Q: What sequence folds into this?
């Protein structure tokens, strides 16, 4: 029977994929046609979602975007027989999915299976190289696993880019009866959705990565701290954990190795600061999410005071391919000290948005124009915020910067979790600077003064600037305030709010009522 | 405002407290369970929660109020969240917010007079590839405008 695929990813659903799927079933019934409908993940080509695919001997053929209203015309064009002249003539015919240029040019390692498999099918996962990494890992000592991760050059994808192997080594060498692996799935950064896509579209790769982490450092309990805004990811993860446990990939005796690893999803409760790792641990312990002083590092005294690995979803979901294909395979991608690939998330005012996984080194310009095709509005792209709400705004003359941790820090910007938000020339950058302070004020945990008081003060100062009241004086206050927050905050919420603010001011002084000359002074 | 709980609701709360009292770090899962079933976390439940988890009432209160997700008062039949974060701003969410507020006749954290919809702000729904985004109950909707939101509200409330 012919197989038809309609994604179950929540962005695809947000565009009507559920109704498209139902309409396909109904239409087939009405016409007396039989087909098997598979709810796969999304490949992240969101400008073509809902993307309907039909399996053929040559590969899957894509049609998109298919709104529910387009389904009848698909059947009229005999799309179940995609090599027919009528199917090829359908205006939404896209040819073989794998040949779509936007996808073909990507280097999908972490996202290798995403969009291809049925997310909760363990058989599908195994048939697409799933659990090869774990099979290798259980043959190795903890030290050997950690060495592979270290040699791969993988750095944390949650924002701080700390070498994952070094963190694991600290936990490995911390003696304790109980250790933990905590997955940071709080994904609070605006403009990012790669964690969500992994959890909804390939949950087993995260489960496998956490299991390898547990075996490596001797941790028997894992928690996934999942933001409460992701109900679909919650359901998918729980289903996958249940199936993995039944099949012996989780539990007391993993694949007969004698090693145990248990996994549980815990829901966050809508506090951005709980994405900060120590605040997250407080929250997991059932407390208010106040940021902890460091040291001690979570690797030494983490959850319930025990040695704990805290890693981002993407960091952990990249472990299986590293253990499968080897450290060198992964390290061969990338540039400088940024090894491997980065799942980049295109967002905001862009024509073709979606997930792009590429080796480090691609430039913003290639992403914004070659991949995204420019702005959605058709107006010039004026500013791009990279790295979430604490990331700097970049003007056009910085679009040739390669995506590389060090190259970004040289221009006082960050890659963060890989989110890229484009704004066209209708944006008011003073307004964005005000919003950065406002967000910080709403989300501050309140533990330190520069952040708690500074953010509210920042909103007031920006109100004066926007109202055109003594701009020179207030901009000096703005700079002093940002300096205090930058140097005096306990965590990056207060400490990095100056990035969007000061970058907006420096690159777009005209929006702050200053001429370029005044700004330079 | 008085939010006296029914006997069935009290039983639900007791069952959840019992199920969570020995779970490590069980307070958040417990609060989620209560809010999922009752729609909010009634302040009248604090003493029982505190007692079962060996906390003070002030500590329970501190946790409930720290997190944006938890609420201590009932909400409308449906919750509409509008994303206010940067990607959605880049696609016109500010205007969308204003129109929806005007159409519903409420501000954030308020419920329409017919008790149908509570409006809440949210900071990113992970749907930034299709901004502006809103969430109604557990479903996300992308590439929204005021007319589309209106149509979805009609469907959810009366459909
Ligand atoms: C305010 C704030 C919010 C953060 N939010 C997240 C988040 O949502 N997800 C995440 O993985 N890391 C987040 N981080 C970074 C974490 O503190 C930590 O560096 C990360 O979880 C470590 O994992 P990694 O090494 O795999 O990146 C945040 C940091 C700060 C200061
Ligand atoms: S910088 Fe802000 S969020 Fe971070 S610890 Fe200080 S008050 Fe809390
Ligand atoms: S910024 Fe609105 S959904 Fe992410």
A:
């Amino acid at each position: 029977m012919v197989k038809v695929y309609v994604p179950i990813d929540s962005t695809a659903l947000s565009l009507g994929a559920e109704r498209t799927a139902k309409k396909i079933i109904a239409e087939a019934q009405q016409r007396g046609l039989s087909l098997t409908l598979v709810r796969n993940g999304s490949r992240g080509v969101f400008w073509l979602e809902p993307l309907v695919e039909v399996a053929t001997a040559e590969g899957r053929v894509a049609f998109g975007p298919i709104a529910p209203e387009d389904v009848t015309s698909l059947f009229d064009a005999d799309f179940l027989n995609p090599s027919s002249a009528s199917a090829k003539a359908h205006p939404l015919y896209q040819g073989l999915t794998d040949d779509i240029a936007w996808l073909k040019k990507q280097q999908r390692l972490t996202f290798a299976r995403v969009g291809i498999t049925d997310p909760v099918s363990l058989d599908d996962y195994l048939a697409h190289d799933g659990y090869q990494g774990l099979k290798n890992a259980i043959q190795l000592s903890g030290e050997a696993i950690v060495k592979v991760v270290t040699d791969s050059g993988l750095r944390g994808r949650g924002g701080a880019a700390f070498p994952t192997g070094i963190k694991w080594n600290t936990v490995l060498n911390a003696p304790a009866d109980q250790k933990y692996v905590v997955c940071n799935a709080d994904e609070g950064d605006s403009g990012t959705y790669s964690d969500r896509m992994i959890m909804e579209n390939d949950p087993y790769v995260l489960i496998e990565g956490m299991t390898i982490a547990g075996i490596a450092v001797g941790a028997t309990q894992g928690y996934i701290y999942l933001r409460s805004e992701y109900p679909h990811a919650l359901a998918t993860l729980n289903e996958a954990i249940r199936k993995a446990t039944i099949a012996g990939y989780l539990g007391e005796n993993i694949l007969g190795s004698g090693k145990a690893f248990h996994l549980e999803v815990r829901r966050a409760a809508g506090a951005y600061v709980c994405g900060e790792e120590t605040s997250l641990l407080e929250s997991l312990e059932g407390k208010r999410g106040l940021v902890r002083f460091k040291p001690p590092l979570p690797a030494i005294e983490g959850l319930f005071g025990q040695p704990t690995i805290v890693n981002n979803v993407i960091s952990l979901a990249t472990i299986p391919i590293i253990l499968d294909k080897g450290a060198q395979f992964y390290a061969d991608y990338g540039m400088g000290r940024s090894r491997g690939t980065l799942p980049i998330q295109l967002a905001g005012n862009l024509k073709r948005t979606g997930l792009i996984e590429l080796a480090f080194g691609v430039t913003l310009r290639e992403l914004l124009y070659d991949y995204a095709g420019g702005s959605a509005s058709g107006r010039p792209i004026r500013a791009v915020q990279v790295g979430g709400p604490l990331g700097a705004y970049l003007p056009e003359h910085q679009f040739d910067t390669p995506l590389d941790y060090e190259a970004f820090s040289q221009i006082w910007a960050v890659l963060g979790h890989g989110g890229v938000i484009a704004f066209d020339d209708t944006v008011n950058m003073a307004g964005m600077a005000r919003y950065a302070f406002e967000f910080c004020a709403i989300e501050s945990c309140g533990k330190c003064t520069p952040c708690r008081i500074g953010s509210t003060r920042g909103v007031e100062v920006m109100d004066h600037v926007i109202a055109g009241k003594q701009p020179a004086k207030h901009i000096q206050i703005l700079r002093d305030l940002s300096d205090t927050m930058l140097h005096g905050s306990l965590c990056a919420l207060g400490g990095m709010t100056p990035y969007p603010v000061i970058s907006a001011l420096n690159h777009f002084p005209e929006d702050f009522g200053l001429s370029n000359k005044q700004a330079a002074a | 405002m008085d939010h006296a709980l029914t006997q069935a609701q009290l039983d639900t709360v007791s069952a959840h407290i019992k199920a969570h009292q020995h779970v490590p770090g069980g307070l958040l899962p417990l609060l989620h369970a209560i809010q999922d079933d009752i729609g909010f976390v009634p302040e009248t439940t604090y003493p029982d929660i505190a007692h079962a988890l060996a906390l003070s009432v002030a500590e329970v209160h501190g946790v409930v109020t720290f997190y944006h997700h938890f609420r201590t008062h009932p909400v409308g039949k449906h919750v509409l969240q509008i994303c206010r974060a940067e990607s959605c701003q880049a696609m016109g969410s500010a205007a969308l917010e204003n129109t929806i507020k005007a159409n519903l006749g409420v501000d954030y954290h308020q419920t329409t007079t017919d008790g149908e919809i509570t409006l809440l702000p949210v900071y990113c729904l992970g749907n930034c590839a299709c901004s502006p985004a809103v969430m109604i109950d557990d479903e996300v909707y992308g590439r929204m405008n005021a007319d589309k939101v209106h149509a979805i509200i009609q469907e959810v409330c009366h459909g």
Notes: The pocket of iron/sulfur cluster (ligand 2) is lined by residues A 273, 291, 444-448, 451-452, 489-491, 493-495 (CB under 6 Å). Residues 113 and 491 of chain A are 35 Å apart (CA to CA).
